[in-house]
């Protein structure tokens, strides 16, 4: 052990180029902050700087894709694989969409723009570190960076009581969950003697204290379960989502959730694999798979049933986001049961793709909701949408496309996402997982009711009072149009992206197909 | 020309979608929605004309398809855009392209609000329905199957009657529940295939079927039964088979005329088509074992549909219930597993499309004039609208099954098929197929009762309501809509041979697949179309 550490110390492997995308985002955040303090009047610029940073970071990420993966960097602290790259891209997309979608809101509410954009970029940096972290410590640091930034964002509307309540609730419960997570990590360290995930995976078979490992992993499930809002750790979600301003809600439902999934996947699928011949590892593997499958079932049923009862669209979307965490879990446990590395990568890519699609759809939906909601999101009940369908056809069409994609209708990206995450679970042939898939399908059928309800009120009902469609500023138009195009495009031409995410080159896939 | 015939099916699917986009763009550019109906009419007529090119090729070989195209779609999950037609889908494609221009025409003046969206939905619906009938990839099939829901949902919900929202949501949820379970079965089949072939899975109908026929892929009895029911439920809801039919009367009644016509004429056929294409081919043993359930449900549907239709005060709802009864006939014929019965089932699908479609159009004409569907509000219409009455009565006769009109051929074949069927043989001496056939016969009699009674109440006697005295008879457009339908009824009734010849080989293949895998002797019921003509 000491030799190992010493060897690392003598040759510090500090390869900056590997984490350049993350660094660019952090620097962009700092630049925004500095710029804002020197030129407080020119507020539009901070968003532009943020967008530029995101663009550069995305280009860097994509350019890294071709690399022959070295696997890890920074003495094994940073992972450099498809999981990191694909989730990183998802986060950047989320950040860009959020900046675009919140332009109008920022104007109306008089939010301190520079701070807002800086915090958003820091949150994105934290999320990217969560996906890139190959070490429990890095993951935790990333998680805290993004969480603290998100707590602040939830409370940005200082004058509004609900926003404050939302931020405080999120902060208190979130810290509680972080504590669980950290304690779990400590216990796992105690059992395996390392915080490095590949090393944990190598040593679970011969863990010194199997009980510690089990308790530790259970606590980590609680911690991550809170962050991704799996039932019964979801109770904070509806209140926080309803209270926070709509663009931030969209961000929270997409970003931190996807980020938590990325680390959750890395820790459990890669850190606690099935080790042949090792009883403790086998027990651990079986336990977390079954536990997550059961949590997934509860989450899907609860999220969907509760969503039906909502009259507020933001609340409905909050509960639906719980249900979607459940669907993503289906792919997650599928990845846990994958038999080969290729299958596992495909399953992980499926979850990444699912969350990508969910994020883009959800952000688009929240952009429309925030636009129609006016100041303080006052108009966010189903009734407020009565009969606007043919009065604002483009907005309503966009919102309908988002709802249908969330529902998983064919020809939208949501359908492809669902097929992808259900696949690995069905492939395993495990009875519990097949049940999970069937529950997920029933959940989708239930969800038809509340997603369609929005279409019904928009297109089928008549509007009693006069209503004029709102003016849509161009950044918001860009965001909504990009989301609609992406949802429809990836509903039909998703092949390239899936391949990129799973890291299968076309040749490799053909070889497998021939076999 | 080659370019067209080589991509024929793709063109058929895409053209209406292009038309829909064109209609929307036209609205966006010119800010007017008065010409969209022309766009819709031209596109649907053009699609019909193109679909006639299907005749340029003969009947495909056993298990084969014509106009086949196979293009990779999402290679990451090995799903392909694989299309082709065989005897089973041939006439259904033509039925779709034939009915669509007529339903555009029958909405010509009836639809007054949001015309662009209406015609765009209609055209998108055509794309989806054609996709369902020609796709040979299970995932893509599911995609079209579900995609057809949205336009229909909008058609009912936006342009429907008073209770439209309830009907639209009910329609959507019923169908979505069934088809989602089918999606699970489709993905499961993918992995069962992968496991059996020791390689990657497949969504391809032809590949999976080939693996099953060669014995490489053997389904366990339990897994087979689960998969069979997952598929069957989706299709049974669509048909609809009693007791999952309850969405149909609401949807039919509330939908605008064009919507009802498409729903009755084409959408319901997706269910029976799916049963024949997928359930019978993939799960012949399960289909045989459960045939008694479907036959009982079909017979209940026939009798129940007829009885409920009889007491309906609402004209359109009455016709909607006749659909339950008529589709019961189709299911009965299919599950007789005799060549005659299955031929009859396919034929009856077309008949029902033509006759019931025509009935809905005719009800729509009356509704446009009087804005009521209550039968008691009419009476004596034959005095003021003689042409209308004549056409309606001919259509009624076709629906009842009068010889020399199309309905007769289908019902006759189905009943003969059921009579000859061995599927209900409990032992050599006890068999229930006579009972089923006779019950179906009662259904025919009941059909005559409710339809003739309707005719009597609506058309005969004196004009009882003053408003009805000044009703105008059908105009040129309306007669123009009806003429192709009437011609189809007569041609299909008098000269069924070309129709049956096209489907013959496909039906024989299915029958052989279902009955041969029983291990017993295949009952040879040679179809003598000549005898039918000389009957």
The ordered string of helix (H) and strand (E) elements of chain A is HHHEEHHHHHHHHHHHHHHHHHH
- Which two chains form the greatest contact, residue counts included? A-B, 41 and 40 residues
How are the strands of the largest sheet of chain A arranged? Answer: 1-2
Segments of chain B where pLDDT lies below 50 for 5+ residues?
Answer: 518-535
Number of helices of chain B: 23
How large is the share of residues in beta strands of chain A? under 5%
What shape does the CA trace of chain A take? globular
Mean pLDDT rating of chain B? 86
Low-confidence stretches of chain A: 505-515
Shape of chain B: globular
Distance between the termini of chain B: 42 Å
Query: Strand sequence of the main sheet of chain B, in spatial order?
Result: 1-2
Helix content, binned percent of chain A = over 70%
Q: Helicity level of chain B, as a percent range?
A: over 70%
How would a crystallographer describe the biggest sheet of chain B?
2 strands, antiparallel
What is the end-to-end distance of chain A? 44 Å
Task: Give Rg of chain A in angstroms.
Answer: 22 Å
